[in-house]
Amino acid sequence: MRLLVVGSIALDSVKTPFGEAKEVLGGSATYFSTAASYFTDVSVVAVVGSDFPEEHYALLKEKNIDLRGLERVKGETFRWVGEYGFDLNEAHTIATELNVFQSFEPKVPEEYKDIDYVFLANIDPEIQLSVLEQVNRPKLVACDTMNYWIEGKFEALKKLLKRVDILIINESEAREFTKEPNLVKAADIILSYGLKYLIIKRGEYGALMFGDSSIFHAPAYPLEFVYDPTGAGDSFAGGFMGYISNTDNMSEDAIRQAIVFGSVMASYNVEAFSLDRLKNLEYSAIKERFKEFKRLTHFEDL
Amino acid sequence: MRLLVVGSIALDSVKTPFGEAKEVLGGSATYFSTAASYFTDVSVVAVVGSDFPEEHYALLKEKNIDLRGLERVKGETFRWVGEYGFDLNEAHTIATELNVFQSFEPKVPEEYKDIDYVFLANIDPEIQLSVLEQVNRPKLVACDTMNYWIEGKFEALKKLLKRVDILIINESEAREFTKEPNLVKAADIILSYGLKYLIIKRGEYGALMFGDSSIFHAPAYPLEFVYDPTGAGDSFAGGFMGYISNTDNMSEDAIRQAIVFGSVMASYNVEAFSLDRLKNLEYSAIKERFKEFKRLTHFEDL
Question: A-chain residues within 8 Å CB-CB of B290?
Protein backbone atom coordinates (compact mmCIF):
# COMPACT_ATOMS: atom_id res chain seq x y z
CA MET A 1 0.00 0.00 0.00
CA ARG A 2 0.99 3.65 -0.16
CA LEU A 3 2.02 5.84 2.75
CA LEU A 4 1.67 9.60 3.07
CA VAL A 5 3.76 11.76 5.37
CA VAL A 6 3.27 15.44 6.09
CA GLY A 7 6.14 17.13 7.93
CA SER A 8 9.28 19.19 7.70
CA ILE A 9 12.33 19.13 5.50
CA ALA A 10 15.22 20.99 7.07
CA LEU A 11 18.87 21.80 6.95
CA ASP A 12 20.34 20.81 10.32
CA SER A 13 23.54 21.81 12.04
CA VAL A 14 24.26 19.34 14.79
CA LYS A 15 27.04 18.95 17.32
CA THR A 16 27.52 15.87 19.49
CA PRO A 17 30.48 14.78 21.65
CA PHE A 18 31.53 12.67 18.65
CA GLY A 19 31.62 15.26 15.90
CA GLU A 20 29.56 17.83 14.10
CA ALA A 21 27.70 18.31 10.86
CA LYS A 22 26.75 21.62 9.23
CA GLU A 23 23.73 22.35 7.05
CA VAL A 24 23.01 18.68 6.44
CA LEU A 25 19.73 17.17 5.30
CA GLY A 26 17.22 16.77 8.13
CA GLY A 27 13.57 17.26 9.05
CA SER A 28 10.83 14.90 10.20
CA ALA A 29 9.46 14.11 6.72
CA THR A 30 12.98 13.38 5.47
CA TYR A 31 13.88 10.87 8.18
CA PHE A 32 10.41 9.35 8.12
CA SER A 33 10.20 8.89 4.37
CA THR A 34 13.73 7.55 3.99
CA ALA A 35 13.17 4.95 6.74
CA ALA A 36 9.75 4.01 5.31
CA SER A 37 11.08 3.78 1.74
CA TYR A 38 12.64 0.39 2.54
CA PHE A 39 9.17 -1.04 3.14
CA THR A 40 6.62 0.77 1.01
CA ASP A 41 5.83 3.57 -1.47
CA VAL A 42 6.03 6.88 0.35
CA SER A 43 4.57 10.22 -0.74
CA VAL A 44 5.65 13.44 0.89
CA VAL A 45 3.88 16.74 1.53
CA ALA A 46 6.42 19.34 2.70
CA VAL A 47 7.98 22.67 1.79
CA VAL A 48 11.53 23.81 1.02
CA GLY A 49 13.03 27.14 0.07
CA SER A 50 14.74 28.18 -3.13
CA ASP A 51 18.10 27.42 -1.50
CA PHE A 52 17.36 23.71 -1.07
CA PRO A 53 20.30 21.82 -2.59
CA GLU A 54 19.66 19.73 -5.69
CA GLU A 55 21.62 16.78 -4.24
CA HIS A 56 19.05 16.37 -1.46
CA TYR A 57 16.22 16.19 -3.98
CA ALA A 58 18.26 13.61 -5.84
CA LEU A 59 18.72 11.50 -2.70
CA LEU A 60 15.00 11.38 -1.92
CA LYS A 61 14.23 10.63 -5.57
CA GLU A 62 16.75 7.79 -5.52
CA LYS A 63 14.80 6.29 -2.60
CA ASN A 64 11.73 6.31 -4.86
CA ILE A 65 10.01 8.84 -2.62
CA ASP A 66 7.12 10.57 -4.37
CA LEU A 67 7.81 14.31 -4.20
CA ARG A 68 4.82 15.62 -6.13
CA GLY A 69 3.60 17.13 -2.84
CA LEU A 70 6.90 18.87 -2.11
CA GLU A 71 6.49 22.62 -2.60
CA ARG A 72 9.47 24.76 -3.42
CA VAL A 73 8.83 28.39 -2.50
CA LYS A 74 10.82 31.59 -2.52
CA GLY A 75 12.89 32.03 0.62
CA GLU A 76 15.09 29.95 2.83
CA THR A 77 14.60 26.35 3.90
CA PHE A 78 13.80 25.56 7.56
CA ARG A 79 17.00 25.39 9.61
CA TRP A 80 17.65 23.80 12.99
CA VAL A 81 20.81 24.11 15.06
CA GLY A 82 21.20 21.73 17.99
CA GLU A 83 23.64 20.11 20.32
CA TYR A 84 23.79 16.93 22.41
CA GLY A 85 25.85 16.17 25.52
CA PHE A 86 27.10 12.72 26.52
CA ASP A 87 23.53 12.02 27.55
CA LEU A 88 22.39 11.66 23.97
CA ASN A 89 18.76 11.36 25.00
CA GLU A 90 18.03 15.07 24.89
CA ALA A 91 18.69 17.66 22.19
CA HIS A 92 19.52 21.20 23.20
CA THR A 93 18.14 23.54 20.57
CA ILE A 94 20.43 26.46 19.85
CA ALA A 95 18.45 28.00 16.99
CA THR A 96 15.28 27.30 15.06
CA GLU A 97 14.80 29.32 11.88
CA LEU A 98 11.42 28.30 10.53
CA ASN A 99 11.83 30.35 7.31
CA VAL A 100 9.49 28.97 4.61
CA PHE A 101 8.10 26.43 7.11
CA GLN A 102 6.59 29.32 9.09
CA SER A 103 3.75 29.77 6.64
CA PHE A 104 3.49 26.13 5.53
CA GLU A 105 -0.04 25.22 4.52
CA PRO A 106 0.08 21.62 3.38
CA LYS A 107 -1.72 21.01 0.09
CA VAL A 108 -2.39 17.32 -0.52
CA PRO A 109 -2.15 16.70 -4.28
CA GLU A 110 -5.11 15.02 -5.97
CA GLU A 111 -2.95 11.94 -6.62
CA TYR A 112 -2.38 11.47 -2.86
CA LYS A 113 -5.96 11.75 -1.64
CA ASP A 114 -6.74 8.04 -1.63
CA ILE A 115 -3.58 6.97 0.22
CA ASP A 116 -4.56 4.50 2.95
CA TYR A 117 -1.79 5.11 5.49
CA VAL A 118 -1.09 8.59 6.78
CA PHE A 119 1.53 9.94 9.17
CA LEU A 120 1.28 13.48 10.47
CA ALA A 121 4.73 14.43 11.75
CA ASN A 122 5.18 16.98 14.51
CA ILE A 123 3.56 20.27 13.41
CA ASP A 124 0.79 22.54 14.68
CA PRO A 125 -2.22 20.26 15.37
CA GLU A 126 -4.45 22.68 13.44
CA ILE A 127 -2.32 22.03 10.37
CA GLN A 128 -2.44 18.29 11.06
CA LEU A 129 -6.25 18.57 11.16
CA SER A 130 -6.25 20.49 7.87
CA VAL A 131 -4.46 17.55 6.24
CA LEU A 132 -7.12 15.13 7.43
CA GLU A 133 -9.74 17.42 5.85
CA GLN A 134 -8.04 16.89 2.50
CA VAL A 135 -7.75 13.10 2.39
CA ASN A 136 -10.41 10.44 1.71
CA ARG A 137 -10.94 8.11 4.64
CA PRO A 138 -7.49 6.57 5.14
CA LYS A 139 -7.34 3.14 6.81
CA LEU A 140 -4.96 4.29 9.49
CA VAL A 141 -3.70 7.66 10.68
CA ALA A 142 -0.79 8.09 13.08
CA CYS A 143 0.69 11.32 14.39
CA ASP A 144 3.43 12.84 16.48
CA THR A 145 3.34 16.01 18.56
CA MET A 146 5.54 17.86 21.08
CA ASN A 147 5.44 19.79 24.34
CA TYR A 148 5.09 23.09 22.50
CA TRP A 149 1.69 22.06 21.07
CA ILE A 150 0.60 20.30 24.26
CA GLU A 151 1.10 23.61 26.07
CA GLY A 152 -0.08 25.98 23.38
CA LYS A 153 -2.70 24.13 21.30
CA PHE A 154 -4.19 21.60 23.66
CA GLU A 155 -7.77 21.92 22.39
CA ALA A 156 -6.76 21.44 18.75
CA LEU A 157 -4.60 18.50 19.79
CA LYS A 158 -7.49 16.80 21.58
CA LYS A 159 -9.69 17.36 18.54
CA LEU A 160 -6.98 15.81 16.36
CA LEU A 161 -6.61 12.73 18.57
CA LYS A 162 -10.30 11.91 18.05
CA ARG A 163 -9.48 11.43 14.37
CA VAL A 164 -6.19 9.58 14.81
CA ASP A 165 -5.58 5.85 15.40
CA ILE A 166 -2.05 5.91 16.79
CA LEU A 167 -0.15 8.61 18.66
CA ILE A 168 3.65 8.28 18.79
CA ILE A 169 5.26 10.55 21.40
CA ASN A 170 8.16 10.76 23.82
CA GLU A 171 7.95 9.74 27.44
CA SER A 172 8.27 13.33 28.70
CA GLU A 173 5.49 14.41 26.33
CA ALA A 174 3.16 11.72 27.68
CA ARG A 175 3.79 13.01 31.20
CA GLU A 176 3.39 16.64 30.14
CA PHE A 177 0.15 15.80 28.30
CA THR A 178 -1.45 14.23 31.36
CA LYS A 179 0.41 15.84 34.31
CA GLU A 180 0.79 12.25 35.49
CA PRO A 181 4.25 10.88 36.35
CA ASN A 182 3.18 7.23 36.18
CA LEU A 183 3.38 6.11 32.56
CA VAL A 184 0.72 3.39 32.77
CA LYS A 185 -1.79 5.86 34.17
CA ALA A 186 -0.71 8.51 31.65
CA ALA A 187 -1.25 6.01 28.84
CA ASP A 188 -4.76 5.19 30.08
CA ILE A 189 -5.65 8.87 30.02
CA ILE A 190 -4.26 9.47 26.53
CA LEU A 191 -5.91 6.33 25.11
CA SER A 192 -9.24 7.58 26.40
CA TYR A 193 -9.18 10.31 23.71
CA GLY A 194 -10.16 7.59 21.28
CA LEU A 195 -6.83 6.19 20.11
CA LYS A 196 -6.34 2.52 19.23
CA TYR A 197 -2.69 2.53 20.27
CA LEU A 198 -0.31 4.85 22.03
CA ILE A 199 3.39 4.39 21.42
CA ILE A 200 5.75 6.01 23.91
CA LYS A 201 9.34 6.47 22.77
CA ARG A 202 12.02 6.37 25.48
CA GLY A 203 15.22 7.03 23.53
CA GLU A 204 17.97 4.59 24.47
CA TYR A 205 15.46 2.75 26.67
CA GLY A 206 13.24 1.66 23.81
CA ALA A 207 9.53 2.01 23.24
CA LEU A 208 6.30 0.99 24.95
CA MET A 209 3.05 0.33 23.12
CA PHE A 210 -0.22 0.63 24.99
CA GLY A 211 -3.38 -0.88 23.49
CA ASP A 212 -6.83 -1.48 24.85
CA SER A 213 -5.83 -4.45 26.94
CA SER A 214 -2.17 -5.06 26.34
CA ILE A 215 1.27 -3.53 26.62
CA PHE A 216 4.27 -4.29 24.43
CA HIS A 217 7.83 -3.32 25.16
CA ALA A 218 10.70 -3.16 22.68
CA PRO A 219 14.20 -2.20 23.82
CA ALA A 220 16.47 0.09 21.88
CA TYR A 221 19.28 -1.76 20.15
CA PRO A 222 22.41 -1.54 22.35
CA LEU A 223 24.92 0.21 20.12
CA GLU A 224 28.60 0.69 20.70
CA PHE A 225 28.70 3.83 18.59
CA VAL A 226 25.96 6.43 18.64
CA TYR A 227 26.94 9.49 16.68
CA ASP A 228 23.80 11.55 16.32
CA PRO A 229 20.32 10.84 17.68
CA THR A 230 18.68 13.50 15.48
CA GLY A 231 15.78 11.99 13.58
CA ALA A 232 15.66 8.77 15.62
CA GLY A 233 11.99 9.29 16.51
CA ASP A 234 11.03 10.00 12.90
CA SER A 235 13.05 7.04 11.62
CA PHE A 236 11.24 4.92 14.20
CA ALA A 237 7.88 6.18 12.97
CA GLY A 238 8.98 5.63 9.34
CA GLY A 239 9.98 2.02 9.93
CA PHE A 240 6.80 1.44 11.94
CA MET A 241 4.37 2.95 9.43
CA GLY A 242 6.35 1.63 6.47
CA TYR A 243 5.98 -1.94 7.69
CA ILE A 244 2.27 -1.52 8.49
CA SER A 245 1.66 -0.06 5.04
CA ASN A 246 3.66 -2.86 3.42
CA THR A 247 1.71 -5.65 5.12
CA ASP A 248 -1.63 -3.79 5.07
CA ASN A 249 -2.27 -5.53 8.40
CA MET A 250 -3.31 -3.81 11.60
CA SER A 251 -3.48 -6.85 13.88
CA GLU A 252 -1.65 -6.51 17.18
CA ASP A 253 0.92 -9.05 15.99
CA ALA A 254 1.72 -6.83 13.01
CA ILE A 255 1.81 -3.70 15.20
CA ARG A 256 4.34 -5.39 17.50
CA GLN A 257 6.55 -6.39 14.57
CA ALA A 258 6.21 -2.88 13.16
CA ILE A 259 7.49 -1.44 16.45
CA VAL A 260 10.54 -3.66 16.18
CA PHE A 261 11.11 -2.53 12.59
CA GLY A 262 10.76 1.06 13.81
CA SER A 263 13.39 0.35 16.47
CA VAL A 264 15.66 -1.19 13.82
CA MET A 265 15.44 1.92 11.63
CA ALA A 266 16.04 4.24 14.60
CA SER A 267 19.12 2.20 15.56
CA TYR A 268 20.61 2.53 12.10
CA ASN A 269 19.76 6.21 11.99
CA VAL A 270 21.79 7.11 15.08
CA GLU A 271 24.90 5.38 13.77
CA ALA A 272 25.80 8.42 11.65
CA PHE A 273 25.06 12.10 11.20
CA SER A 274 22.10 13.16 9.06
CA LEU A 275 20.89 10.31 6.79
CA ASP A 276 24.39 9.03 6.14
CA ARG A 277 23.64 5.55 7.46
CA LEU A 278 19.90 5.43 6.86
CA LYS A 279 20.17 6.18 3.17
CA ASN A 280 22.54 3.29 2.39
CA LEU A 281 20.89 0.23 3.90
CA GLU A 282 20.30 -3.18 2.38
CA TYR A 283 16.97 -4.78 3.23
CA SER A 284 18.94 -7.86 4.32
CA ALA A 285 20.67 -5.75 7.00
CA ILE A 286 17.28 -4.53 8.23
CA LYS A 287 16.02 -8.11 8.53
CA GLU A 288 19.24 -9.21 10.22
CA ARG A 289 18.89 -6.51 12.87
CA PHE A 290 15.23 -7.46 13.37
CA LYS A 291 16.47 -10.95 14.16
CA GLU A 292 19.03 -9.51 16.56
CA PHE A 293 16.16 -7.83 18.41
CA LYS A 294 14.63 -11.28 18.70
CA ARG A 295 17.83 -12.67 20.23
CA LEU A 296 18.16 -9.62 22.46
CA THR A 297 14.73 -10.12 24.03
CA HIS A 298 14.28 -13.87 23.88
CA PHE A 299 13.78 -16.03 26.96
CA GLU A 300 12.22 -19.47 27.32
CA ASP A 301 8.68 -19.58 28.67
CA LEU A 302 7.99 -21.69 31.76
CA MET B 1 20.71 -26.07 46.05
CA ARG B 2 21.46 -23.62 48.86
CA LEU B 3 22.13 -19.91 48.52
CA LEU B 4 24.21 -17.71 50.80
CA VAL B 5 23.82 -13.94 51.07
CA VAL B 6 26.07 -11.58 53.00
CA GLY B 7 24.71 -8.07 53.42
CA SER B 8 22.87 -5.62 55.61
CA ILE B 9 19.77 -5.78 57.73
CA ALA B 10 18.42 -2.33 58.49
CA LEU B 11 15.59 -0.29 59.84
CA ASP B 12 14.53 2.12 57.10
CA SER B 13 12.54 5.32 57.21
CA VAL B 14 11.32 6.14 53.73
CA LYS B 15 9.24 8.91 52.25
CA THR B 16 7.84 8.85 48.71
CA PRO B 17 5.19 11.06 47.05
CA PHE B 18 2.73 8.27 47.92
CA GLY B 19 3.30 7.92 51.62
CA GLU B 20 5.90 7.20 54.23
CA ALA B 21 7.12 4.42 56.48
CA LYS B 22 9.12 4.76 59.70
CA GLU B 23 11.66 2.29 61.10
CA VAL B 24 10.48 -0.54 58.90
CA LEU B 25 12.41 -3.67 58.01
CA GLY B 26 14.97 -3.10 55.25
CA GLY B 27 18.54 -3.84 54.20
CA SER B 28 20.07 -5.66 51.25
CA ALA B 29 20.22 -9.10 52.87
CA THR B 30 16.59 -8.78 53.95
CA TYR B 31 15.21 -7.93 50.52
CA PHE B 32 17.50 -10.42 48.82
CA SER B 33 16.73 -13.35 51.10
CA THR B 34 12.98 -12.76 51.16
CA ALA B 35 12.84 -12.63 47.34
CA ALA B 36 15.08 -15.69 47.02
CA SER B 37 13.13 -17.67 49.63
CA TYR B 38 10.38 -18.34 47.08
CA PHE B 39 12.86 -20.33 44.97
CA THR B 40 15.49 -21.91 47.20
CA ASP B 41 16.96 -22.37 50.70
CA VAL B 42 18.64 -19.15 51.73
CA SER B 43 21.22 -18.66 54.48
CA VAL B 44 22.08 -15.20 55.76
CA VAL B 45 25.24 -13.69 57.20
CA ALA B 46 24.45 -10.26 58.66
CA VAL B 47 24.42 -8.28 61.88
CA VAL B 48 21.72 -6.54 63.91
CA GLY B 49 21.75 -4.60 67.16
CA SER B 50 20.10 -5.44 70.45
CA ASP B 51 17.17 -3.22 69.47
CA PHE B 52 16.19 -5.38 66.46
CA PRO B 53 12.49 -6.17 66.82
CA GLU B 54 11.48 -9.77 67.45
CA GLU B 55 8.72 -9.57 64.81
CA HIS B 56 11.33 -9.06 62.07
CA TYR B 57 13.20 -12.18 63.14
CA ALA B 58 9.89 -13.99 63.09
CA LEU B 59 9.14 -12.83 59.55
CA LEU B 60 12.48 -14.06 58.17
CA LYS B 61 12.08 -17.34 60.07
CA GLU B 62 8.62 -17.76 58.60
CA LYS B 63 10.18 -17.51 55.14
CA ASN B 64 12.43 -20.47 56.12
CA ILE B 65 15.48 -18.26 55.93
CA ASP B 66 18.46 -19.78 57.77
CA LEU B 67 19.59 -17.21 60.35
CA ARG B 68 22.42 -19.14 61.98
CA GLY B 69 24.78 -16.59 60.46
CA LEU B 70 22.88 -13.59 61.81
CA GLU B 71 24.85 -11.98 64.64
CA ARG B 72 23.06 -9.97 67.27
CA VAL B 73 25.46 -7.57 68.98
CA LYS B 74 25.18 -4.86 71.58
CA GLY B 75 24.22 -1.52 70.08
CA GLU B 76 21.79 -0.18 67.56
CA THR B 77 20.77 -1.72 64.24
CA PHE B 78 21.84 -0.02 60.96
CA ARG B 79 19.37 2.74 60.06
CA TRP B 80 18.75 4.43 56.74
CA VAL B 81 16.56 7.47 56.12
CA GLY B 82 15.71 8.28 52.52
CA GLU B 83 13.30 10.07 50.25
CA TYR B 84 12.14 9.78 46.65
CA GLY B 85 10.61 12.39 44.36
CA PHE B 86 8.17 11.69 41.54
CA ASP B 87 11.14 10.38 39.63
CA LEU B 88 11.26 7.19 41.66
CA ASN B 89 14.48 6.07 40.01
CA GLU B 90 16.77 7.77 42.48
CA ALA B 91 16.85 7.71 46.28
CA HIS B 92 17.93 10.80 48.16
CA THR B 93 19.68 9.70 51.33
CA ILE B 94 18.87 11.91 54.29
CA ALA B 95 20.74 9.94 56.94
CA THR B 96 22.81 6.78 57.21
CA GLU B 97 23.52 5.52 60.71
CA LEU B 98 25.74 2.48 60.31
CA ASN B 99 25.69 1.64 64.04
CA VAL B 100 26.56 -2.05 64.51
CA PHE B 101 27.09 -2.43 60.74
CA GLN B 102 30.12 -0.09 61.03
CA SER B 103 32.31 -2.83 62.49
CA PHE B 104 30.64 -5.78 60.71
CA GLU B 105 33.11 -8.60 60.11
CA PRO B 106 31.13 -11.38 58.47
CA LYS B 107 31.76 -14.78 60.00
CA VAL B 108 30.55 -17.61 57.77
CA PRO B 109 29.31 -20.44 60.05
CA GLU B 110 30.80 -23.89 59.49
CA GLU B 111 27.40 -25.12 58.26
CA TYR B 112 27.41 -22.54 55.44
CA LYS B 113 30.89 -23.17 54.05
CA ASP B 114 29.87 -25.63 51.35
CA ILE B 115 27.02 -23.55 49.96
CA ASP B 116 27.25 -23.52 46.16
CA TYR B 117 25.64 -20.19 45.34
CA VAL B 118 26.88 -17.00 46.95
CA PHE B 119 25.68 -13.40 46.72
CA LEU B 120 27.76 -10.60 48.18
CA ALA B 121 25.45 -7.63 48.63
CA ASN B 122 26.77 -4.06 48.51
CA ILE B 123 29.46 -3.70 51.21
CA ASP B 124 33.17 -2.81 51.31
CA PRO B 125 34.86 -4.99 48.67
CA GLU B 126 37.53 -5.94 51.24
CA ILE B 127 34.78 -7.44 53.37
CA GLN B 128 33.30 -9.15 50.31
CA LEU B 129 36.75 -10.67 49.66
CA SER B 130 36.99 -11.83 53.28
CA VAL B 131 33.77 -13.80 52.79
CA LEU B 132 35.21 -15.57 49.76
CA GLU B 133 38.21 -16.55 51.90
CA GLN B 134 35.83 -18.35 54.25
CA VAL B 135 33.83 -20.47 51.78
CA ASN B 136 34.79 -23.66 49.92
CA ARG B 137 34.78 -23.22 46.14
CA PRO B 138 31.18 -22.16 45.44
CA LYS B 139 29.82 -22.92 41.95
CA LEU B 140 28.79 -19.35 41.34
CA VAL B 141 29.48 -16.04 43.06
CA ALA B 142 27.61 -12.83 42.25
CA CYS B 143 28.07 -9.43 43.84
CA ASP B 144 26.77 -5.89 43.95
CA THR B 145 28.72 -2.70 44.64
CA MET B 146 28.14 1.06 44.58
CA ASN B 147 29.76 4.37 43.56
CA TYR B 148 31.21 4.83 47.06
CA TRP B 149 33.42 1.74 46.68
CA ILE B 150 34.17 2.42 43.03
CA GLU B 151 35.59 5.75 44.11
CA GLY B 152 37.18 4.73 47.38
CA LYS B 153 38.21 1.07 47.04
CA PHE B 154 38.82 0.55 43.36
CA GLU B 155 41.83 -1.76 43.76
CA ALA B 156 40.00 -4.07 46.19
CA LEU B 157 37.00 -4.05 43.88
CA LYS B 158 39.08 -5.11 40.88
CA LYS B 159 40.64 -7.89 42.97
CA LEU B 160 37.16 -9.01 43.98
CA LEU B 161 35.87 -9.09 40.40
CA LYS B 162 38.58 -11.59 39.45
CA ARG B 163 36.94 -14.02 41.88
CA VAL B 164 33.33 -13.27 40.97
CA ASP B 165 31.21 -14.70 38.13
CA ILE B 166 28.45 -12.12 37.91
CA LEU B 167 28.39 -8.43 38.82
CA ILE B 168 24.97 -6.80 39.26
CA ILE B 169 25.13 -2.99 39.30
CA ASN B 170 23.19 0.11 38.32
CA GLU B 171 23.61 1.91 35.03
CA SER B 172 25.23 4.97 36.67
CA GLU B 173 27.66 2.70 38.51
CA ALA B 174 28.71 1.02 35.26
CA ARG B 175 29.44 4.46 33.80
CA GLU B 176 31.25 5.60 36.94
CA PHE B 177 33.30 2.39 37.02
CA THR B 178 34.59 2.88 33.48
CA LYS B 179 34.30 6.66 32.89
CA GLU B 180 32.57 5.58 29.67
CA PRO B 181 29.10 6.96 28.82
CA ASN B 182 28.34 4.28 26.22
CA LEU B 183 26.94 1.27 28.05
CA VAL B 184 28.05 -1.35 25.51
CA LYS B 185 31.64 -0.14 25.71
CA ALA B 186 31.40 0.14 29.51
CA ALA B 187 30.18 -3.45 29.66
CA ASP B 188 33.10 -4.67 27.55
CA ILE B 189 35.54 -3.02 29.92
CA ILE B 190 33.90 -4.42 33.05
CA LEU B 191 33.62 -7.94 31.58
CA SER B 192 37.36 -7.87 30.87
CA TYR B 193 38.02 -8.12 34.63
CA GLY B 194 37.15 -11.78 34.27
CA LEU B 195 33.38 -11.87 34.82
CA LYS B 196 31.12 -14.33 33.01
CA TYR B 197 28.16 -11.95 33.03
CA LEU B 198 27.49 -8.34 33.85
CA ILE B 199 23.95 -7.34 34.71
CA ILE B 200 23.13 -3.64 34.52
CA LYS B 201 19.99 -2.52 36.35
CA ARG B 202 18.17 0.50 34.92
CA GLY B 203 15.31 1.01 37.37
CA GLU B 204 11.99 1.51 35.58
CA TYR B 205 13.76 0.80 32.28
CA GLY B 206 14.62 -2.79 33.12
CA ALA B 207 17.90 -4.67 33.01
CA LEU B 208 20.57 -5.55 30.48
CA MET B 209 22.74 -8.64 30.67
CA PHE B 210 26.08 -8.69 28.89
CA GLY B 211 27.83 -12.01 28.30
CA ASP B 212 30.82 -12.98 26.25
CA SER B 213 29.03 -12.79 22.95
CA SER B 214 25.44 -11.90 23.68
CA ILE B 215 23.22 -9.27 25.21
CA PHE B 216 19.83 -9.84 26.82
CA HIS B 217 17.31 -7.16 27.67
CA ALA B 218 14.42 -7.46 30.11
CA PRO B 219 12.04 -4.54 30.65
CA ALA B 220 10.72 -3.53 34.03
CA TYR B 221 7.10 -4.48 34.53
CA PRO B 222 4.92 -1.44 33.76
CA LEU B 223 3.11 -0.83 37.03
CA GLU B 224 0.23 1.53 37.66
CA PHE B 225 1.15 1.91 41.31
CA VAL B 226 4.71 2.18 42.52
CA TYR B 227 4.88 3.02 46.20
CA ASP B 228 8.48 2.53 47.23
CA PRO B 229 11.45 1.47 45.10
CA THR B 230 13.65 0.75 48.14
CA GLY B 231 15.10 -2.75 47.87
CA ALA B 232 14.15 -3.24 44.20
CA GLY B 233 17.75 -3.99 43.22
CA ASP B 234 18.20 -6.50 46.03
CA SER B 235 14.84 -8.14 45.31
CA PHE B 236 15.95 -8.41 41.69
CA ALA B 237 19.20 -10.06 42.75
CA GLY B 238 17.30 -12.35 45.14
CA GLY B 239 14.89 -13.55 42.46
CA PHE B 240 17.78 -13.95 40.03
CA MET B 241 20.09 -15.92 42.32
CA GLY B 242 17.17 -17.80 43.90
CA TYR B 243 16.10 -19.17 40.54
CA ILE B 244 19.69 -20.09 39.51
CA SER B 245 20.21 -21.87 42.81
CA ASN B 246 16.86 -23.67 42.44
CA THR B 247 17.63 -24.99 38.95
CA ASP B 248 21.37 -25.48 39.60
CA ASN B 249 21.77 -24.48 35.94
CA MET B 250 24.09 -21.79 34.66
CA SER B 251 23.30 -22.03 30.95
CA GLU B 252 22.51 -18.74 29.23
CA ASP B 253 18.89 -19.85 28.83
CA ALA B 254 18.64 -20.26 32.60
CA ILE B 255 20.40 -16.93 33.22
CA ARG B 256 17.89 -15.18 30.96
CA GLN B 257 14.94 -16.75 32.77
CA ALA B 258 16.56 -15.86 36.09
CA ILE B 259 16.76 -12.20 35.02
CA VAL B 260 13.03 -12.27 34.30
CA PHE B 261 12.35 -13.81 37.72
CA GLY B 262 14.52 -11.08 39.22
CA SER B 263 12.44 -8.48 37.40
CA VAL B 264 9.25 -10.14 38.66
CA MET B 265 10.43 -9.96 42.28
CA ALA B 266 11.55 -6.34 41.89
CA SER B 267 8.14 -5.45 40.45
CA TYR B 268 6.31 -6.95 43.40
CA ASN B 269 8.72 -5.31 45.82
CA VAL B 270 7.97 -1.76 44.66
CA GLU B 271 4.21 -2.23 45.03
CA ALA B 272 4.40 -1.54 48.77
CA PHE B 273 6.65 -0.09 51.47
CA SER B 274 9.27 -2.29 53.10
CA LEU B 275 8.57 -6.01 52.51
CA ASP B 276 4.81 -5.60 52.79
CA ARG B 277 4.14 -7.04 49.33
CA LEU B 278 7.21 -9.21 48.92
CA LYS B 279 6.58 -11.18 52.08
CA ASN B 280 3.08 -12.30 51.14
CA LEU B 281 3.39 -13.74 47.65
CA GLU B 282 2.07 -16.99 46.27
CA TYR B 283 4.38 -18.83 43.90
CA SER B 284 1.50 -18.95 41.42
CA ALA B 285 1.49 -15.13 41.32
CA ILE B 286 5.22 -15.13 40.62
CA LYS B 287 4.76 -17.55 37.72
CA GLU B 288 1.79 -15.56 36.43
CA ARG B 289 3.84 -12.36 36.33
CA PHE B 290 6.69 -14.22 34.59
CA LYS B 291 4.17 -15.11 31.90
CA GLU B 292 3.09 -11.48 31.71
CA PHE B 293 6.71 -10.56 30.99
CA LYS B 294 6.53 -13.03 28.12
CA ARG B 295 3.41 -11.32 26.73
CA LEU B 296 4.96 -7.90 27.31
CA THR B 297 8.01 -8.68 25.20
CA HIS B 298 6.67 -11.13 22.64
CA PHE B 299 6.72 -10.48 18.90
CA GLU B 300 6.61 -12.91 15.99
CA ASP B 301 9.89 -13.65 14.28
CA LEU B 302 10.12 -13.06 10.53
Answer: 302
Q: Which of B217, B244, B260 to mutate to test the interface with A (most CBs of A within 10 A)?
A: B217
Please indicate, yes or no, if residue A195 is contained in any of the structural domains.
no
Cβ A35 vs Cβ A235: under 8 Å: yes
Q: Which of A17, A86, A222 sits opposite B215 (nearest CB)?
A: A222
Whether A222 contacts chain B with CB within 8 A: yes
Q: Which residues of A84-118 are buried (b: 16+ CB within 10 A; e: fewer)?
A: beeebeebeeeeeeebbbeebebebeeebeebbbb
Establish if B218 touches chain A: CB-CB under 8 angstroms.
Answer: yes
Residue B275 lies in a domain: yes
Predicted-complex ipTM score: 0.95
pTM: 0.96
pLDDT band, residue A90 (cuts 50/70/90): confident
CB-based contact B218 A299, cutoff 8 Å? yes
Residue A30 belongs to domain with CATH number = 3.40.1190.20
**Sign of CA pseudo-dihedral B183, B184, B188, B191:** positive
Q: Is B90 on the interface with A (CB under 8 A)?
A: no
Specify burial of residue B240 (Cβ count, 10 A radius: 0-12, 13-18, 19+). buried
Structural domain span for residue A98: 2-169+219-297
Q: Could you give the angle at the alpha carbon of B271 between the alpha carbons of B166 and B90, nearest 5°?
A: 60
The tens digit of pLDDT for each residue in A45-70 reads 999 999 999 999 999 999 999 999 99
B85 touches chain A (CB under 8 A): no
The total of structural domains in chain B comes to 1
* pLDDT reading at A89 higher than 80: no
Q: Which residue of chain B has the CA closest to A172?
A: B87
A208 and chain B: CB distance < 8 Å anywhere? Answer: yes
In whole angstroms, give the CA distance from residue B66 to residue B68.
6
User: Would you say residue A272 lies in a domain?
Assistant: yes
Spatial CA neighbour of A237 closest among A61, A55, A17, A4: A4
Q: How far is B274 from chain A (nearest CA, A)?
A: 20
pLDDT for B33-76, tens place per residue? 999 999 999 999 999 999 999 999 999 999 999 999 999 999 99
Distance from CA of residue A107 to its chain's centroid? 20
The string of pLDDT tens digits covering residues B224-273 is: 999 999 999 999 999 999 999 999 999 999 999 999 999 999 999 999 99
Within a domain: residue B302? no
What part of B 148-187 touches A (C-beta under 8 Å)?
Answer: 181-185
For residue B16, give the nearest of B258, B235, B229 by alpha carbon: B229
